[in-house]
Amino acid sequence: MQTISHWIDGAAVEGRSGRHSDVFNPATGEVQARVPLASTDEVNDAIARAAAAQPAWAATNPQRRARVMMKFGQLLNERMDDLAEAISREHGKTIPDARGDVQRGLEVVEVCMGAPHMLKGEYTNDGGPGIDLYSMRQPLGVVAGITPFNFPAMIPLWKMAPALACGNAMILKPSERTPTTANMLAEIIQEAGLPNGLLQVVHGDKEAVDAILDNETVQAVGFVGSTPIAQYIYGRACSNGKRAQCFGGAKNHMIIMPDADLDKAADALVGAGYGAAGERCMAISVAVPVGQETADRLVDKLLPRIEKLKVGPYTAGDDVDFGPLVTAEAHQRVSGLIDSGVEEGAKLVVDGRGFSMQGYENGFFMGPSLFDNVTRDMRIYREEIFGPVLSQVRAESYDEALDLVMSHEYGNGTAIFTADGDTARDFAHRVNVGMVGINFPIPVPLSYHTFGGWKKSSFGDLNQFGPDAFRFYTKTKTVTARWFSGIKDQAEFNFKPMD
Ligand code: NAD
């Protein structure tokens, strides 16, 4: 059995706490590795070492830091297959999907190659007589990234690339369920030229996270995970005086208007609902067709597509549509939620609970499920399921459909399928959700825009990646300067405009 190490000061370091967590292969159900759970002392030690390394990195000119990003991008491309295999082995997602996981992180690295431009300050010449103002963006120092299991490459890359490009050191605490990829990323960026100590990968659970939150050296915390933990981390980080941005769970609705191309809508729903076994924060989990006829026709379109879905291990080839859930616990939770939907009166049109994979009977596989006649009060509507379950809620009108999306406590992503530009425009303007798709089911913005939800899907005021990341990982200093060429002014005592 493999024992995973922390990555400290550019080398693998064994855990010293004596506590470990099992890492499963979700396809076989076997424990394939043990990951150490860091103690408070181990975390504090990693932070102190990062703090010692950071000033020299901050003093390195931004072009040189950008060159590390360029080499890092090149190496990520070269190691794409190894990274994808490591992701699939611990997460269970298919290889093409795991490559997408790396690719969407790599695209953020590509934007960070332009860090010198993103870090440029502002300048005002002659803001007053002989007075110039300029602002500069300076790194925060040591920052932390705490990431979820479902994107083992993409989300750590969203955190580490901008943080490091801005001149910070980062403590990365990846998910204990999918820990290996973070170590690989650390090794690769070291090969790309990142000096030791600037990216410390510390594995762990609540103890390690709390140590990060309470350590005075850590200046900022970027979190991605479930909403209760996001809210907890946001509260504790802020009350300890840190900058925090914490992204949480989701319940993404897709409205299907009567004029939509239903074949395209059904294709989009199947991909966005069941892809990665529904373990995506941008998965569409609620379909809201407008009108009974649209709803009936949509179910007719969905059924043959769902029947054709191929569930299997990532090793079975590229025609597998999705793999197992990440753990037995996740499998149990999703099954329990499906049970609750049946008990509360929703119509279970397709039941994925009894699915078993020949030769992989101990794997955490679950077939696709489809519910119809779901209502607002049901648990399967209110809670994030994070499994291969699509719920259809029937709406009588566009306004009722919009109200469903607007009233839900989550606001990560949403989509509308329609042939009418006016309806689409109205939806995009009015909806209180952070990322909107128009005839596009998973509207994850490109890396030069920004990513973030609204309502209970996000705590904090800046988004991830793009220009917001450069704001989050730097602080602004503004200088007001005057050079005397003789004594032009007498002492002034009033706070007044510079005129
Ligand atoms: P999680 O909240 O269980 O874990 C996320 C991180 O928090 C992990 O590193 C974990 O070790 C740590 N953690 C867990 N419990 C903790 C506790 N009690 N105290 C301190 N730290 C704790 O989330 P997950 O199951 O790994 O990921 C799935 C969730 O993440 C879903 O809710 C999904 O919607 C969400 N997610 C959101 C986004 C987004 O951008 N909004 C992206 C991906 C995933």
TrEMBL record:
PROSITE patterns: ALDEHYDE_DEHYDR_CYS. The keyword Protein biosynthesis does not apply. Its EC number is 1.2.1.27. GO terms for biological process: L-valine catabolic process; thymine catabolic process. It comes from the Bacteria. Gene3D superfamilies: Aldehyde Dehydrogenase, Chain A, domain 1, Aldehyde Dehydrogenase, Chain A, domain 2. The keyword NAD applies. This is methylmalonate-semialdehyde dehydrogenase (CoA acylating). Residues 15-479 form the Aldehyde dehydrogenase domain. Keywords: NAD, Oxidoreductase. It holds the Pfam family Aldedh. Coiled coil: none annotated. InterPro entries: Ald_DH/histidinol_DH, Ald_DH_C, Ald_DH_CS_CYS, Ald_DH_N, Aldehyde_DH_dom, MeMal-semiAld_DH. GO terms for molecular function: methylmalonate-semialdehyde dehydrogenase (acylating, NAD) activity. Transmembrane segments: none annotated. It comes from Palleronia caenipelagi. CDD domains: ALDH_F6_MMSDH (cd07085).
